[in-house]
Amino acid sequence: MPWSYLPHTEADRKAMLAAIGVANSGELFADIPAELCLHRPLNLPAALAEPDLAKHLAALAGANINVSEYICFLGAGAYDHYIPSVVDHILRRSEFYTAYTPYQPEISQGYLQALWEYQALIAELTGLEVANSSLYDGGTGLAEAAMVAASATGRKEFLVAKTVHPHYRAILSTYARDRGYTLTEIGYQDGVLAAGELQNKLGPTVAAVIVQSPNFFGCIEDLAAGTAAAHAQGALMIAAVDPISLGLLEAPGKLGVDIVVGEGQSLGIPLSFGGPYLGFFATTEKLMRKIPGRIVGQTVDQEGNRGFVLTLQAREQHIRREKATSNICSNEALCALAAAVYLNTMGKEGLPQIASLSLQKAHYAYTQLTGIKGVEPVFGAPFFKEFAVRLPQPVAAVNKQLLAANIIGGLDLGNYYPELTGCTLLCVTESRSRQEIDLLAARLGAIV
Amino acid sequence: MNIPKELKYSRDHEWVKIEGTRATIGITDFAQSQLGDVVFVELPAVGDEVAAGSGLAVIESVKAVSDIYAPLAGKVVETNELLADAPETVNQDAYGTGWIAVLEISDLPQPDALLDSEAYERLVGEGGQ
What we know:
The structure holds two protein chains of two kinds. By secondary structure, chain A is α/β, with parallel strands linked by helices. Chain A has helices at residues 10-20, 50-62, 85-91, 94-97, 109-126, 138-153, 166-179, 195-201, 223-232, 333-370, 395-404, 434-447; strands at 71-72, 130-131, 157-161, 182-186, 188-189, 192-193, 206-213, 236-241, 259-263, 279-283, 296-300, 306-310, 376-377, 386-390, 407-408, 411-412, 423-427.
Protein backbone atom coordinates (compact mmCIF):
# COMPACT_ATOMS: atom_id res chain seq x y z
CA MET A 1 0.00 0.00 0.00
CA PRO A 2 2.29 2.81 -1.15
CA TRP A 3 -0.49 5.44 -0.94
CA SER A 4 -2.09 4.64 2.39
CA TYR A 5 -3.17 8.27 3.02
CA LEU A 6 -4.77 8.82 -0.38
CA PRO A 7 -8.45 7.98 -0.83
CA HIS A 8 -8.28 6.82 -4.48
CA THR A 9 -7.54 3.23 -5.37
CA GLU A 10 -5.76 2.22 -8.56
CA ALA A 11 -9.18 1.25 -9.97
CA ASP A 12 -10.59 4.69 -9.06
CA ARG A 13 -7.72 6.38 -10.86
CA LYS A 14 -8.13 4.29 -14.00
CA ALA A 15 -11.86 5.01 -14.08
CA MET A 16 -11.29 8.77 -13.72
CA LEU A 17 -8.62 8.85 -16.43
CA ALA A 18 -10.84 6.80 -18.75
CA ALA A 19 -13.77 9.16 -18.12
CA ILE A 20 -11.79 12.17 -19.36
CA GLY A 21 -10.13 10.18 -22.14
CA VAL A 22 -6.45 10.17 -21.14
CA ALA A 23 -4.17 7.20 -20.63
CA ASN A 24 -2.24 8.46 -17.61
CA SER A 25 -1.94 11.51 -15.38
CA GLY A 26 1.23 12.57 -17.19
CA GLU A 27 -0.88 13.49 -20.21
CA LEU A 28 -2.61 16.17 -18.14
CA PHE A 29 0.70 18.08 -18.13
CA ALA A 30 1.16 17.87 -21.91
CA ASP A 31 1.11 21.67 -22.23
CA ILE A 32 4.42 21.98 -20.32
CA PRO A 33 7.23 22.10 -22.94
CA ALA A 34 9.27 18.88 -22.95
CA GLU A 35 12.56 20.73 -22.50
CA LEU A 36 11.34 22.07 -19.15
CA CYS A 37 10.49 18.60 -17.83
CA LEU A 38 12.92 16.56 -15.74
CA HIS A 39 12.18 13.17 -17.42
CA ARG A 40 13.40 11.31 -14.33
CA PRO A 41 12.29 10.85 -10.73
CA LEU A 42 13.44 13.45 -8.20
CA ASN A 43 16.85 12.72 -6.73
CA LEU A 44 15.64 11.84 -3.24
CA PRO A 45 16.64 9.09 -0.84
CA ALA A 46 14.30 6.12 -0.48
CA ALA A 47 11.23 6.43 1.73
CA LEU A 48 11.62 5.54 5.41
CA ALA A 49 9.33 3.67 7.76
CA GLU A 50 7.74 6.03 10.27
CA PRO A 51 9.85 4.97 13.30
CA ASP A 52 13.04 5.36 11.22
CA LEU A 53 11.87 8.72 9.94
CA ALA A 54 11.20 9.93 13.50
CA LYS A 55 14.75 8.91 14.50
CA HIS A 56 16.20 10.58 11.41
CA LEU A 57 14.41 13.88 12.04
CA ALA A 58 15.36 13.81 15.73
CA ALA A 59 19.00 13.40 14.71
CA LEU A 60 18.74 16.34 12.29
CA ALA A 61 17.10 18.51 14.94
CA GLY A 62 19.74 17.46 17.47
CA ALA A 63 22.44 18.88 15.20
CA ASN A 64 21.07 22.40 15.85
CA ILE A 65 21.83 24.36 18.96
CA ASN A 66 18.85 26.02 20.64
CA VAL A 67 18.03 28.78 23.09
CA SER A 68 16.91 26.46 25.85
CA GLU A 69 20.39 24.89 26.11
CA TYR A 70 22.41 27.96 25.14
CA ILE A 71 22.33 31.51 26.51
CA CYS A 72 21.26 33.75 23.64
CA PHE A 73 22.55 37.31 23.17
CA LEU A 74 21.67 37.39 19.48
CA GLY A 75 18.78 39.52 18.21
CA ALA A 76 18.88 41.55 14.98
CA GLY A 77 15.24 40.99 14.10
CA ALA A 78 14.49 37.71 15.90
CA TYR A 79 14.17 37.78 19.65
CA ASP A 80 14.34 35.35 22.55
CA HIS A 81 11.44 36.71 24.62
CA TYR A 82 9.59 34.41 26.97
CA ILE A 83 6.43 32.76 25.59
CA PRO A 84 3.73 32.12 28.22
CA SER A 85 2.48 28.52 28.05
CA VAL A 86 -1.11 29.68 27.52
CA VAL A 87 -0.17 30.78 23.98
CA ASP A 88 0.57 27.28 22.79
CA HIS A 89 -2.46 25.79 24.52
CA ILE A 90 -4.81 28.11 22.66
CA LEU A 91 -2.94 27.82 19.36
CA ARG A 92 -3.20 24.04 19.41
CA ARG A 93 -6.98 23.94 19.62
CA SER A 94 -7.90 22.26 16.34
CA GLU A 95 -10.57 24.91 15.59
CA PHE A 96 -7.68 27.38 15.25
CA TYR A 97 -4.86 25.07 14.24
CA THR A 98 -6.52 23.52 11.19
CA ALA A 99 -8.71 26.42 10.08
CA TYR A 100 -8.64 27.71 6.54
CA THR A 101 -9.18 31.24 5.25
CA PRO A 102 -12.39 32.54 6.83
CA TYR A 103 -14.11 33.47 3.56
CA GLN A 104 -17.38 32.07 4.87
CA PRO A 105 -18.20 34.14 7.94
CA GLU A 106 -21.14 31.84 8.76
CA ILE A 107 -18.72 29.08 9.80
CA SER A 108 -15.71 31.15 10.90
CA GLN A 109 -16.94 33.48 13.63
CA GLY A 110 -14.42 32.24 16.21
CA TYR A 111 -11.34 32.85 14.09
CA LEU A 112 -12.68 36.09 12.65
CA GLN A 113 -13.28 37.43 16.14
CA ALA A 114 -9.78 36.41 17.24
CA LEU A 115 -8.21 38.15 14.24
CA TRP A 116 -10.37 41.22 14.77
CA GLU A 117 -9.12 41.36 18.36
CA TYR A 118 -5.54 41.03 17.07
CA GLN A 119 -6.16 44.00 14.76
CA ALA A 120 -7.63 46.03 17.60
CA LEU A 121 -4.56 45.29 19.77
CA ILE A 122 -2.13 46.26 16.98
CA ALA A 123 -4.09 49.45 16.30
CA GLU A 124 -3.93 50.38 19.99
CA LEU A 125 -0.24 49.49 20.30
CA THR A 126 0.76 51.52 17.23
CA GLY A 127 -1.63 54.41 17.94
CA LEU A 128 -3.30 54.13 14.55
CA GLU A 129 -6.84 53.63 13.29
CA VAL A 130 -6.69 50.49 11.16
CA ALA A 131 -4.59 47.33 11.15
CA ASN A 132 -4.71 44.40 8.76
CA SER A 133 -4.87 40.82 9.94
CA SER A 134 -1.12 40.24 9.23
CA LEU A 135 1.46 39.77 6.50
CA TYR A 136 4.34 37.30 6.18
CA ASP A 137 6.92 39.14 8.28
CA GLY A 138 8.32 42.54 9.20
CA GLY A 139 10.31 42.90 5.99
CA THR A 140 7.32 42.19 3.78
CA GLY A 141 5.26 44.60 5.84
CA LEU A 142 7.80 47.36 5.25
CA ALA A 143 7.91 46.78 1.48
CA GLU A 144 4.12 46.68 1.27
CA ALA A 145 3.95 49.94 3.24
CA ALA A 146 6.22 51.56 0.67
CA MET A 147 3.94 50.39 -2.15
CA VAL A 148 0.96 51.94 -0.37
CA ALA A 149 2.84 55.23 -0.03
CA ALA A 150 3.72 55.27 -3.73
CA SER A 151 0.10 54.61 -4.64
CA ALA A 152 -1.24 57.24 -2.24
CA THR A 153 1.17 60.02 -3.23
CA GLY A 154 1.66 59.20 -6.90
CA ARG A 155 5.42 59.53 -6.31
CA LYS A 156 8.16 57.01 -7.01
CA GLU A 157 11.11 57.73 -4.73
CA PHE A 158 11.79 56.47 -1.22
CA LEU A 159 14.30 57.74 1.30
CA VAL A 160 15.40 54.76 3.36
CA ALA A 161 17.49 55.03 6.49
CA LYS A 162 20.61 52.86 6.41
CA THR A 163 19.73 52.01 10.00
CA VAL A 164 16.78 49.93 8.74
CA HIS A 165 17.36 46.15 8.96
CA PRO A 166 19.50 45.12 5.93
CA HIS A 167 17.14 42.24 5.12
CA TYR A 168 14.14 44.58 5.12
CA ARG A 169 15.99 46.90 2.74
CA ALA A 170 16.78 43.92 0.48
CA ILE A 171 13.08 42.96 0.31
CA LEU A 172 12.19 46.59 -0.38
CA SER A 173 14.64 46.80 -3.25
CA THR A 174 13.21 43.61 -4.77
CA TYR A 175 9.73 45.15 -4.73
CA ALA A 176 10.97 48.53 -5.98
CA ARG A 177 12.98 47.13 -8.88
CA ASP A 178 10.01 45.65 -10.73
CA ARG A 179 7.82 48.68 -10.16
CA GLY A 180 10.46 51.18 -11.22
CA TYR A 181 10.73 52.92 -7.87
CA THR A 182 13.94 54.61 -6.71
CA LEU A 183 15.48 53.93 -3.31
CA THR A 184 17.83 56.52 -1.84
CA GLU A 185 19.68 55.61 1.34
CA ILE A 186 20.16 58.06 4.16
CA GLY A 187 23.31 57.56 6.21
CA TYR A 188 23.63 57.57 9.98
CA GLN A 189 25.44 59.57 12.64
CA ASP A 190 26.16 58.16 16.07
CA GLY A 191 23.78 55.25 15.46
CA VAL A 192 20.74 57.17 14.18
CA LEU A 193 19.51 58.63 10.91
CA ALA A 194 21.52 61.71 9.79
CA ALA A 195 18.83 64.40 10.06
CA GLY A 196 20.71 66.93 7.92
CA GLU A 197 21.14 64.43 5.09
CA LEU A 198 17.42 63.59 5.26
CA GLN A 199 16.54 67.28 5.01
CA ASN A 200 18.85 67.72 1.97
CA LYS A 201 17.46 64.74 0.11
CA LEU A 202 13.78 65.39 0.82
CA GLY A 203 11.82 66.91 -2.03
CA PRO A 204 8.57 66.87 -4.00
CA THR A 205 9.41 63.53 -5.67
CA VAL A 206 9.66 61.58 -2.41
CA ALA A 207 6.75 59.24 -1.66
CA ALA A 208 7.90 58.26 1.83
CA VAL A 209 10.65 58.39 4.40
CA ILE A 210 11.31 54.89 5.75
CA VAL A 211 12.87 54.35 9.16
CA GLN A 212 13.05 51.71 11.86
CA SER A 213 12.89 52.48 15.57
CA PRO A 214 14.47 51.04 17.64
CA ASN A 215 16.66 50.74 14.54
CA PHE A 216 18.88 47.85 13.46
CA PHE A 217 21.57 49.01 15.93
CA GLY A 218 18.98 49.11 18.74
CA CYS A 219 19.01 52.93 18.83
CA ILE A 220 15.85 55.03 19.15
CA GLU A 221 15.15 57.26 16.12
CA ASP A 222 13.46 60.66 16.41
CA LEU A 223 10.18 59.69 14.75
CA ALA A 224 8.46 63.01 15.45
CA ALA A 225 11.21 65.06 13.74
CA GLY A 226 11.42 62.67 10.77
CA THR A 227 7.64 62.79 10.38
CA ALA A 228 7.56 66.59 10.46
CA ALA A 229 10.30 66.76 7.80
CA ALA A 230 8.52 64.21 5.56
CA HIS A 231 5.10 65.83 5.89
CA ALA A 232 6.52 69.27 5.07
CA GLN A 233 7.39 67.88 1.62
CA GLY A 234 4.12 66.01 1.14
CA ALA A 235 5.81 62.65 1.78
CA LEU A 236 4.47 59.95 4.08
CA MET A 237 6.35 58.59 7.08
CA ILE A 238 6.76 54.82 7.43
CA ALA A 239 8.24 53.26 10.55
CA ALA A 240 9.12 49.67 11.35
CA VAL A 241 8.96 49.19 15.09
CA ASP A 242 9.66 46.60 17.77
CA PRO A 243 6.24 45.92 19.32
CA ILE A 244 7.78 45.12 22.73
CA SER A 245 9.36 48.60 22.78
CA LEU A 246 5.87 50.11 22.52
CA GLY A 247 5.35 49.02 26.12
CA LEU A 248 7.56 52.00 26.99
CA LEU A 249 7.91 54.24 23.95
CA GLU A 250 5.20 56.55 22.59
CA ALA A 251 2.95 54.98 19.95
CA PRO A 252 4.30 56.05 16.53
CA GLY A 253 0.80 56.87 15.29
CA LYS A 254 0.54 59.51 18.01
CA LEU A 255 3.75 61.07 16.65
CA GLY A 256 2.16 61.40 13.21
CA VAL A 257 3.70 58.35 11.51
CA ASP A 258 1.40 57.35 8.63
CA ILE A 259 2.17 53.63 8.35
CA VAL A 260 3.57 51.51 11.16
CA VAL A 261 4.79 48.00 10.45
CA GLY A 262 6.99 45.52 12.21
CA GLU A 263 7.98 42.01 13.08
CA GLY A 264 5.60 40.45 15.57
CA GLN A 265 7.74 37.40 16.36
CA SER A 266 8.52 38.84 19.81
CA LEU A 267 4.83 38.53 20.69
CA GLY A 268 4.62 34.87 21.66
CA ILE A 269 6.13 33.29 18.52
CA PRO A 270 9.16 30.98 18.78
CA LEU A 271 12.42 31.77 16.95
CA SER A 272 12.03 28.68 14.71
CA PHE A 273 15.21 29.47 12.75
CA GLY A 274 13.52 32.39 11.01
CA GLY A 275 9.88 31.56 10.43
CA PRO A 276 6.93 31.43 10.28
CA TYR A 277 6.93 35.00 11.58
CA LEU A 278 4.36 37.79 11.70
CA GLY A 279 4.25 41.07 9.82
CA PHE A 280 1.95 43.60 11.43
CA PHE A 281 0.67 46.59 9.49
CA ALA A 282 -1.27 49.58 10.75
CA THR A 283 -2.20 52.90 9.22
CA THR A 284 -4.62 55.82 9.18
CA GLU A 285 -8.26 55.70 8.11
CA LYS A 286 -7.28 57.89 5.16
CA LEU A 287 -5.14 55.08 3.72
CA MET A 288 -7.59 52.33 4.69
CA ARG A 289 -8.56 51.43 1.11
CA LYS A 290 -4.95 50.92 0.11
CA ILE A 291 -4.01 48.47 2.87
CA PRO A 292 -2.61 45.18 1.56
CA GLY A 293 -3.80 41.83 2.83
CA ARG A 294 -6.91 40.93 4.77
CA ILE A 295 -8.94 43.09 7.09
CA VAL A 296 -11.53 41.69 9.47
CA GLY A 297 -14.43 44.00 10.26
CA GLN A 298 -17.09 44.03 12.93
CA THR A 299 -20.69 44.35 11.79
CA VAL A 300 -24.23 43.16 12.62
CA ASP A 301 -26.33 40.47 10.96
CA GLN A 302 -29.89 41.08 9.81
CA GLU A 303 -31.16 40.39 13.34
CA GLY A 304 -28.78 42.93 14.83
CA ASN A 305 -26.38 40.41 16.39
CA ARG A 306 -22.70 41.29 16.39
CA GLY A 307 -20.68 39.40 13.78
CA PHE A 308 -17.31 39.49 12.02
CA VAL A 309 -16.46 39.36 8.30
CA LEU A 310 -13.56 39.87 5.93
CA THR A 311 -14.17 43.42 4.79
CA LEU A 312 -13.02 46.01 2.23
CA GLN A 313 -12.22 43.14 -0.09
CA ALA A 314 -12.23 45.49 -3.08
CA ARG A 315 -8.56 46.14 -2.22
CA GLU A 316 -7.71 42.51 -2.77
CA GLN A 317 -6.43 40.79 -5.84
CA HIS A 318 -9.31 38.37 -6.18
CA ILE A 319 -11.61 41.34 -6.92
CA ARG A 320 -9.49 43.31 -9.37
CA ARG A 321 -6.11 41.69 -9.81
CA GLU A 322 -4.53 44.38 -11.98
CA LYS A 323 -5.62 47.19 -9.68
CA ALA A 324 -5.02 45.53 -6.30
CA THR A 325 -2.71 47.26 -3.83
CA SER A 326 -0.85 44.04 -3.29
CA ASN A 327 -0.50 40.55 -4.68
CA ILE A 328 -0.43 39.09 -1.21
CA CYS A 329 -3.69 37.60 -0.05
CA SER A 330 -2.08 35.26 2.46
CA ASN A 331 -1.80 36.10 6.08
CA GLU A 332 -0.21 34.50 9.13
CA ALA A 333 -3.40 33.80 11.03
CA LEU A 334 -1.95 31.38 13.57
CA CYS A 335 0.95 33.73 14.34
CA ALA A 336 -1.47 36.67 14.60
CA LEU A 337 -3.51 34.60 17.03
CA ALA A 338 -0.35 33.91 19.07
CA ALA A 339 0.32 37.65 19.22
CA ALA A 340 -3.26 38.35 20.32
CA VAL A 341 -3.04 35.73 23.09
CA TYR A 342 0.39 37.04 24.15
CA LEU A 343 -0.76 40.68 24.33
CA ASN A 344 -3.95 39.76 26.18
CA THR A 345 -1.94 37.63 28.62
CA MET A 346 0.64 40.35 29.29
CA GLY A 347 -1.95 43.08 29.41
CA LYS A 348 -1.51 46.79 29.99
CA GLU A 349 0.84 46.22 32.92
CA GLY A 350 2.73 43.20 31.66
CA LEU A 351 3.93 44.63 28.35
CA PRO A 352 5.56 47.74 29.87
CA GLN A 353 7.15 45.41 32.43
CA ILE A 354 8.66 43.18 29.72
CA ALA A 355 9.87 46.28 27.87
CA SER A 356 11.32 47.82 30.99
CA LEU A 357 13.11 44.60 32.05
CA SER A 358 14.59 44.20 28.56
CA LEU A 359 15.76 47.82 28.56
CA GLN A 360 17.28 47.69 32.03
CA LYS A 361 19.03 44.37 31.50
CA ALA A 362 20.40 45.52 28.13
CA HIS A 363 21.80 48.65 29.77
CA TYR A 364 23.29 46.63 32.61
CA ALA A 365 24.98 44.38 30.03
CA TYR A 366 26.22 47.44 28.12
CA THR A 367 27.81 48.86 31.27
CA GLN A 368 29.40 45.51 32.19
CA LEU A 369 30.79 44.88 28.69
CA THR A 370 32.08 48.38 27.95
CA GLY A 371 33.90 48.16 31.30
CA ILE A 372 36.10 45.43 29.83
CA LYS A 373 39.50 46.68 28.61
CA GLY A 374 39.48 46.67 24.81
CA VAL A 375 35.69 46.54 24.42
CA GLU A 376 34.53 49.94 23.16
CA PRO A 377 31.10 51.52 22.77
CA VAL A 378 30.20 52.28 19.13
CA PHE A 379 27.24 54.67 19.33
CA GLY A 380 26.09 57.26 21.85
CA ALA A 381 22.39 57.35 20.92
CA PRO A 382 19.81 56.02 23.42
CA PHE A 383 19.04 52.34 22.83
CA PHE A 384 16.31 49.89 23.80
CA LYS A 385 17.33 46.20 24.07
CA GLU A 386 20.17 45.98 21.54
CA PHE A 387 23.52 47.74 21.35
CA ALA A 388 26.77 47.56 19.40
CA VAL A 389 30.26 47.23 20.88
CA ARG A 390 33.62 47.12 19.14
CA LEU A 391 35.80 44.10 19.96
CA PRO A 392 39.60 43.99 19.81
CA GLN A 393 39.45 40.66 17.93
CA PRO A 394 37.37 39.50 14.93
CA VAL A 395 33.74 38.99 15.93
CA ALA A 396 33.54 35.52 14.35
CA ALA A 397 36.52 34.29 16.41
CA VAL A 398 35.05 35.69 19.62
CA ASN A 399 31.63 34.14 18.87
CA LYS A 400 33.25 30.76 18.30
CA GLN A 401 34.82 30.86 21.76
CA LEU A 402 31.60 32.08 23.36
CA LEU A 403 29.74 29.19 21.72
CA ALA A 404 32.18 26.76 23.35
CA ALA A 405 30.97 28.25 26.65
CA ASN A 406 27.30 27.70 25.66
CA ILE A 407 26.77 31.37 24.83
CA ILE A 408 25.31 32.56 21.51
CA GLY A 409 27.14 35.83 20.86
CA GLY A 410 26.10 38.89 18.89
CA LEU A 411 25.76 39.61 15.18
CA ASP A 412 28.92 40.51 13.25
CA LEU A 413 27.93 43.97 11.97
CA GLY A 414 30.85 43.96 9.52
CA ASN A 415 28.90 41.48 7.37
CA TYR A 416 26.32 44.18 6.62
CA TYR A 417 28.18 47.44 7.28
CA PRO A 418 31.85 47.26 6.18
CA GLU A 419 32.55 50.43 8.18
CA LEU A 420 31.52 48.54 11.33
CA THR A 421 33.97 45.64 10.95
CA GLY A 422 34.92 44.39 14.38
CA CYS A 423 31.60 45.50 15.92
CA THR A 424 29.10 43.06 17.38
CA LEU A 425 25.38 43.70 17.87
CA LEU A 426 24.19 42.20 21.14
CA CYS A 427 20.63 41.77 22.37
CA VAL A 428 19.35 41.36 25.93
CA THR A 429 15.71 40.47 26.56
CA GLU A 430 13.84 40.00 29.84
CA SER A 431 14.70 36.29 29.56
CA ARG A 432 18.37 36.90 30.42
CA SER A 433 19.28 36.75 34.10
CA ARG A 434 21.93 38.83 35.85
CA GLN A 435 24.02 35.65 36.24
CA GLU A 436 23.88 35.03 32.50
CA ILE A 437 24.91 38.61 31.70
CA ASP A 438 27.74 38.42 34.25
CA LEU A 439 28.83 35.13 32.68
CA LEU A 440 28.94 36.77 29.22
CA ALA A 441 31.06 39.61 30.64
CA ALA A 442 33.42 37.17 32.39
CA ARG A 443 33.84 34.99 29.28
CA LEU A 444 34.30 37.96 26.98
CA GLY A 445 36.81 39.46 29.41
CA ALA A 446 38.78 36.19 29.37
CA ILE A 447 38.73 36.04 25.55
CA VAL A 448 39.82 39.61 24.84
CA MET B 1 -35.30 55.42 -15.05
CA ASN B 2 -34.24 59.09 -15.17
CA ILE B 3 -32.42 60.06 -18.42
CA PRO B 4 -32.28 63.89 -18.78
CA LYS B 5 -32.74 65.08 -22.38
CA GLU B 6 -30.09 67.84 -22.22
CA LEU B 7 -27.17 65.52 -21.40
CA LYS B 8 -24.88 63.33 -23.52
CA TYR B 9 -24.09 59.75 -22.53
CA SER B 10 -21.32 57.19 -22.96
CA ARG B 11 -21.74 53.46 -23.55
CA ASP B 12 -20.03 52.95 -20.15
CA HIS B 13 -22.95 54.76 -18.46
CA GLU B 14 -21.31 58.09 -17.75
CA TRP B 15 -23.22 61.34 -18.42
CA VAL B 16 -21.52 64.43 -19.83
CA LYS B 17 -22.64 68.04 -19.60
CA ILE B 18 -20.63 70.20 -22.00
CA GLU B 19 -20.56 73.95 -21.27
CA GLY B 20 -18.11 75.87 -23.45
CA THR B 21 -14.67 74.27 -23.03
CA ARG B 22 -15.66 72.39 -19.88
CA ALA B 23 -17.34 69.04 -19.36
CA THR B 24 -18.94 67.88 -16.12
CA ILE B 25 -19.00 64.09 -15.74
CA GLY B 26 -20.96 61.73 -13.54
CA ILE B 27 -22.60 58.32 -13.68
CA THR B 28 -26.15 57.73 -14.83
CA ASP B 29 -29.20 56.84 -12.79
CA PHE B 30 -29.09 53.40 -14.43
CA ALA B 31 -25.42 52.96 -13.40
CA GLN B 32 -26.03 53.89 -9.76
CA SER B 33 -29.03 51.57 -9.56
CA GLN B 34 -26.97 48.69 -10.98
CA LEU B 35 -24.10 49.35 -8.55
CA GLY B 36 -26.22 49.53 -5.44
CA ASP B 37 -25.15 51.53 -2.38
CA VAL B 38 -22.01 53.49 -3.20
CA VAL B 39 -19.55 53.41 -0.27
CA PHE B 40 -16.43 55.03 -1.74
CA VAL B 41 -15.37 57.11 -4.71
CA GLU B 42 -11.68 57.41 -5.55
CA LEU B 43 -11.43 60.78 -7.30
CA PRO B 44 -8.72 61.85 -9.76
CA ALA B 45 -6.28 64.61 -8.83
CA VAL B 46 -6.85 68.12 -10.15
CA GLY B 47 -4.34 68.60 -12.94
CA ASP B 48 -4.50 64.99 -14.19
CA GLU B 49 -4.54 64.67 -17.98
CA VAL B 50 -6.96 61.97 -19.14
CA ALA B 51 -7.43 60.42 -22.57
CA ALA B 52 -10.87 59.49 -23.90
CA GLY B 53 -11.73 56.03 -22.62
CA SER B 54 -9.05 55.98 -19.89
CA GLY B 55 -9.78 55.54 -16.19
CA LEU B 56 -10.99 58.73 -14.52
CA ALA B 57 -12.20 57.55 -11.12
CA VAL B 58 -13.02 54.37 -9.23
CA ILE B 59 -16.39 53.76 -7.62
CA GLU B 60 -16.92 51.16 -4.93
CA SER B 61 -20.34 49.87 -3.94
CA VAL B 62 -21.39 47.16 -1.54
CA LYS B 63 -21.51 44.85 -4.56
CA ALA B 64 -18.50 45.69 -6.73
CA VAL B 65 -15.71 48.03 -7.65
CA SER B 66 -15.99 49.72 -11.05
CA ASP B 67 -13.88 52.07 -13.08
CA ILE B 68 -15.34 55.31 -14.34
CA TYR B 69 -13.91 56.17 -17.77
CA ALA B 70 -13.37 59.61 -19.22
CA PRO B 71 -15.92 60.00 -22.05
CA LEU B 72 -13.65 62.57 -23.68
CA ALA B 73 -10.05 63.79 -23.40
CA GLY B 74 -9.14 66.64 -21.09
CA LYS B 75 -7.51 67.94 -17.95
CA VAL B 76 -9.17 67.55 -14.56
CA VAL B 77 -9.94 71.04 -13.23
CA GLU B 78 -12.40 70.19 -10.45
CA THR B 79 -13.44 67.13 -8.43
CA ASN B 80 -16.46 66.68 -6.20
CA GLU B 81 -14.94 66.72 -2.71
CA LEU B 82 -18.38 66.14 -1.20
CA LEU B 83 -18.11 62.50 -2.28
CA ALA B 84 -15.20 61.87 0.11
CA ASP B 85 -17.50 62.13 3.12
CA ALA B 86 -20.83 61.41 1.43
CA PRO B 87 -20.32 58.86 -1.38
CA GLU B 88 -24.01 57.95 -1.18
CA THR B 89 -24.74 61.28 -2.94
CA VAL B 90 -24.06 59.38 -6.18
CA ASN B 91 -27.10 57.20 -5.45
CA GLN B 92 -29.27 60.09 -4.24
CA ASP B 93 -28.56 62.68 -6.93
CA ALA B 94 -26.60 61.12 -9.80
CA TYR B 95 -27.16 64.02 -12.22
CA GLY B 96 -26.79 66.84 -9.67
CA THR B 97 -24.74 66.97 -6.47
CA GLY B 98 -23.42 63.47 -7.23
CA TRP B 99 -21.21 64.67 -10.12
CA ILE B 100 -17.66 63.26 -10.22
CA ALA B 101 -15.32 65.68 -11.99
CA VAL B 102 -15.03 68.60 -14.37
CA LEU B 103 -12.64 68.41 -17.33
CA GLU B 104 -11.16 71.22 -19.41
CA ILE B 105 -11.77 69.66 -22.82
CA SER B 106 -8.62 69.16 -24.86
CA ASP B 107 -10.27 67.24 -27.71
CA LEU B 108 -13.94 67.38 -28.66
CA PRO B 109 -15.33 63.85 -28.86
CA GLN B 110 -15.99 62.22 -32.24
CA PRO B 111 -19.58 62.99 -33.35
CA ASP B 112 -20.70 59.39 -32.68
CA ALA B 113 -18.63 58.83 -29.52
CA LEU B 114 -21.37 60.10 -27.22
CA LEU B 115 -25.05 59.15 -27.28
CA ASP B 116 -28.04 61.46 -26.97
CA SER B 117 -30.72 60.66 -24.40
CA GLU B 118 -32.82 58.64 -26.85
CA ALA B 119 -29.91 56.46 -27.98
CA TYR B 120 -28.89 55.97 -24.37
CA GLU B 121 -32.44 55.04 -23.42
CA ARG B 122 -32.38 52.36 -26.16
CA LEU B 123 -29.04 51.07 -24.77
CA VAL B 124 -30.51 50.77 -21.28
CA GLY B 125 -33.66 49.19 -22.74
CA GLU B 126 -31.46 46.50 -24.29
CA GLY B 127 -30.00 45.70 -20.88
CA GLY B 128 -27.27 48.33 -20.86
CA GLN B 129 -24.65 46.25 -22.68
